Amino acid sequence: MTKDEALRKARELGVDIVEIVPKAVPPVAKLIEFSKFKYQQQQKEQDEKKKAKISEIKELRMTPVMAQGDFDVRMKKARKYLEDGDKVRLVVKFQGRQIARKDLGERIIRRAVEQLADCSQMEIQPKLMGKLLMMQLTPVKKKKAPQAQTQQDSLPASKQTEE
What we know:
Largest sheet: 4 strands, mixed
CATH class of the largest domain: Alpha Beta
Number of domains: 2
CATH architecture of the largest domain: 2-Layer Sandwich
Strand order of the largest sheet: 3-4-6-5
Helix content: 40-55%
């Protein structure tokens, strides 16, 4: 339909011509009331905002001399947060004279990084801010193995050597 025909038809119907895809050849337009079109656009944007996941930063506090059980509980929570797509900030708080033994805090942070290495990567390196040793981890999306490779792995060893 030509531009003149579209304008004439829009006047007859009492609606507007709204350009939907301007970069297409020829451009795509729609006969619709402009206010209705704007309302539909707003609804689409609101739906997209609802569906978008906002990642939060979850903070887990630890001490340089903490029991293994307490450490394990915090690592379980950190793993859960990372799997949910949230970032995790690990904070080691030094109290009193513990600041003299920074190596204990660094050891706790190192153990945490080792345990969470499969589901996270370090976003902010450990740094000392006053009496707090902080670092931040971000979740890593796991890549799926190609199916051709997994099928080859499932073949018996004798058939793999024949190929």
